[in-house]
Specification:
Elements: E1 15-18, E2 23-25, H1 26-30, E3 35-39, H2 47-69, E4 73-78, H3 82-92, E5 97-100, H4 105-110, E6 114-117, E7 120-123, E8 127-131, E9 137-141, H5 149-157, H6 165-171
Parallel strand pairs: 3-4, 4-5
Antiparallel strand pairs: 1-2, 1-5, 3-8, 6-7, 8-9
Length: about 170
């Protein structure tokens, strides 16, 4: 697993710059509603690492309306600059915020693996965290399977729907 934090841990406080220019405190922001946090590499990379990051971001983008409909926010975080993030978000027409962790404060605090190559440090492999409205990590999704990412986040955060005996017999 590529993170120091585990299910049941509280998300720590850390400030990150959003593509819209605002500085957000991750802990304060997630306590407003449940959120799916995706740590990925992509905007400043090329080749397989960039393709993998973009594939996961695209899956999150495709499932974003489902998350929003059940009250879960989504944000993607990389260690790329705010300028690179803004260009990437614009190019892909992303419906959610990208946060820049250019100083690597969040990835270090959370214990997310990074790797250096050719003077560029980036997330070693994508990892996602489903965090409830109290800021408690409900799932660490690693490895990420893009087609199931949104479903896993929803199942991790939302309580299971309990059917009455009558509803169960009608569904049968």
């Amino acid at each position: 697993m590529s993170t120091r934090l585990k299910v049941g841990d509280a998300l720590p406080s850390v400030g990150l710059r959003a593509t819209d220019g605002y500085l957000l405190n991750l802990r304060s922001w997630v306590t407003r509603q449940p959120v799916l946090l995706l740590f990925f590499a992509g905007p400043s990379l090329s080749g397989e690492a960039e393709r993998r990051g973009t594939e996961i971001v695209a899956a999150l983008s495709e499932g974003y309306s489902r998350l929003r409909d059940v009250g879960i926010a989504a944000v993607a975080i990389s260690v790329d600059s705010q300028v690179d993030q803004a260009a990437y978000a614009s190019k892909l027409k992303l419906p959610f915020l990208l946060l820049s962790d250019e100083r690597r404060s969040a990835v270090e605090l959370l214990g997310i693996e990074t790797k250096a190559a050719n003077g560029n440090v980036n997330v070693a492999r994508p990892v996602a965290m489903a965090v409830d409205h109290e800021g408690i990590i409900r799932a660490v999704i690693d490895p990420i399977d893009p087609p199931s990412l949104v479903d896993r986040a929803i199942r991790s955060i939302l309580p299971p729907v309990r059917r009455t005996t009558e509803e169960a017999s009608v569904a049968s």
